[in-house]
Write a structure and sequence with these properties.
This protein is mostly helical. The protein contains 21 helices and no strands. It is a multi-pass membrane protein.
């Protein structure tokens, strides 16, 4: 591989720009609140695009196009479920969580919010929720590192082991240095790059295959059932794919964006921007996988890498159809998707360890400078564990993501959603919800019951546990007072 390789040069410039943003954010990071939530200063555009980019990880450009390429439009139910779930999350949770966290001890993390909202003096709620974050996020981080490794492996011909470290290094660097502001600012750049790649690529694939009519005829000739939304599906299968949307209510890296908005007034505008971005990106992703069927059936000589691993469909189309410089920019979009999600997850794990273990139980009197450096050390620690988990080359991106997504969706989703809309929820209800949700996902996944995606029973059982256990107790006067004040604040300013 020569150093003049345009794709390599594009990657190096892109990564250097991200690290530079990290250094700029470093200058604005003075205390733990800045490092974890950017001092609650995000405007609506940055809130919207960083929420979108942190959500849409490497699976958007690898896992989902690969699934569509293999099975046709029947895999697009997942995109429909995600759009509905994301919209409801913006509508019901975003603004309320922003004011509730401020009224409940200016909470910086989800465990922090739970502990304040439910007056948990024992520390049990904080510890259990922080442990859930660490377990599922380390798996989630591993999925991002696998996606990054696949990209470097197929683009530069590296061995999987070398690609693993190359893909992770840049993300660790800017997250380590700049914290939340670096992550959010880079997310905004990355979201722009992702939408550019996902709108341009399907158009060029269409033109290369001979236009819409020719493309559709080629897809039909390959297998007419590619157009069938119900192909090889069952009711349980469709519900399982749509069930991905439930996960939004419990993803700490997305909820952190809501908590960091500069005010509740920014949320409505952010929702509009974020949903537009998301619908366009998901539409582009489905189109890339779908039109790829026509392109590779018409050009079997170049289809070998995709036949071996269908998650490479976007990568191969970019390399074949574009000038190497443009291909470099498009492939940087995959790196952007991987980096944006991985950086958020590393930061949430770091904040759970720093705020919810170190500061709360080990060093209550720690200075802000000390806490920021502990936060940075924890970013490195979590990253190294995730790299170790990702070391198996047979890992599939979508499989790792689906498990972690279900874990958060079931353990935290019902607790977050119900805590911001129901005043009578109690500490024991929250505790029961987290435990029942997490345990259901692990058990259901292990036994693969009914062929149903584990997030659905997890979400239902956790919600029931919260309601039943909360009904057995009563919230304190302080909890009711803070809830009412936050709700009034939300209604006044939304």
């Amino acid at each position: 591989m020569s150093v003049s390789n345009p794709t390599l040069i594009t990657f190096v410039i892109y990564i250097a720009a991200m690290v530079l943003i990290g250094l700029m954010a470093y200058r604005s990071t003075n205390n733990l609140s800045d490092y974890i939530l950017g001092g609650r200063s995000l405007g609506s555009v940055v809130t919207a695009l960083s929420a979108g980019a942190s959500d849409m990880s490497g699976w958007l450009l690898m896992g989902l196009p690969g699934a569509i390429y293999m099975s046709g439009l029947s895999e697009s139910w997942i995109a429909i479920g995600l759009i509905i779930g994301a919209y409801l999350n913006w509508l019901f949770v975003a603004g309320r969580l922003r004011v509730q966290t401020e009224h409940n001890g200016d909470a910086l993390t989800l465990p922090d919010y739970f502990a304040s909202r439910f007056e948990d003096k024992s520390g049990l709620l904080r510890i259990i929720s922080a442990v859930v974050i660490l377990v599922f996020f380390t798996i989630y981080c591993a999925s991002g590192i696998v996606a990054g490794a696949r990209l470097f492996e197929s683009t530069f011909g590296m061995s999987y082991e070398t690609a693993l470290w190359a893909g992770a290094a840049a993300t660790i660097a800017y997250t380590f240095v700049g914290g939340f502001l670096a992550v959010s600012w880079t997310d905004t750049v990355q979201a722009t790059l992702m939408i550019f790649a996902l709108l341009l690529t399907p158009i060029i694939v269409l033109l290369a295959t001979g236009g819409i009519d020719t493309t559709f005829l080629a897809i039909e000739a390959q297998d007419p059932s590619n157009f069938d939304m119900l192909k090889n599906t069952t009711f349980i299968g469709i519900i399982s794919l749509m069930g991905w949307g439930l996960g939004y209510f419990g993803q700490p890296h997305i909820l952190a964006r809501f908590m960091a908005a500069d005010s509740v007034k920014s949320i409505a505008n952010a929702r509009r921007i974020s949903m537009t971005w998301m619908i366009l990106c998901l539409g582009g992703t489905v189109a890339v996988g779908f039109f790829g069927i026509a392109y590779f059936s018409a050009n079997p000589a170049v289809a070998m890498p995709v036949t071996e691993n269908h998650e490479r469909v976007f990568i191969e189309l970019a390399k074949i159809l574009f000038n190497p410089w443009i291909a470099g920019v498009l492939l940087s979009a995959i790196l952007a998707a991987v980096m944006s999600t991985l950086s958020c997850q590393l930061l949430v794990c770091s904040s759970a360890l720093t705020e919810d273990f170190y500061k709360t139980f080990l060093r209550k009197s720690a200075s802000q400078v000390e806490l920021v450096w502990v936060g940075r050390a924890m970013v490195l620690l979590v990253a190294l564990i995730a790299i170790a988990l990702a070391a198996n080359p047979s890992n599939r991106v979508l499989g790792l993501v689906s498990y972690a997504w279900a874990g958060f969706g079931a353990a935290f989703g019902p607790v977050v959603l119900i805590s911001v809309i129901w005043k009578d929820m109690t500490r024991n209800g929250a505790l029961a919800g987290i435990l029942v949700g997490a345990i259901t996902v692990i058990v259901w996944k292990h036994f693969e019951l009914l062929g149903l995606y584990e997030i659905i029973p997890g979400f239902i059982f956790a919600s029931l546990a919260i309601y039943i256990v909360s009904k057995l107790g009563t919230p304190t006067h302080g909890m009711l007072q803070r809830f009412a004040a936050a709700e009034a604040d939300f209604r006044l300013n939304k």
